[in-house]
Amino acid sequence: MIPQLVTVRYRRSSGRRRRLYVPVVPVLLVLSPLLLLAVLGGVIACLATRVSPAGALRGAGRLLWALPGTRFEFEEGRTALLISVR
User: How far apart are CA 29 and CA 19, in angstroms?
Assistant: First the structure.
């Protein structure tokens, strides 16, 4: 299952907590021209380093498939960041 929503929670230096909900599909549609350039650059990099582009694409697909339910936590001083993928 491809992730549908990414929740980003962070604590500002003032101590106030914020929560952002980022829908994945609309963001991908807006960024699709850049995504196309990134895929093209990835294919060129794969060919330059003699890595199979199909194998690299399969690995990226497995990574995306495993993302739902993942949580990333980062804390630096008085700032904290939590990213949750649903």
Answer: 23
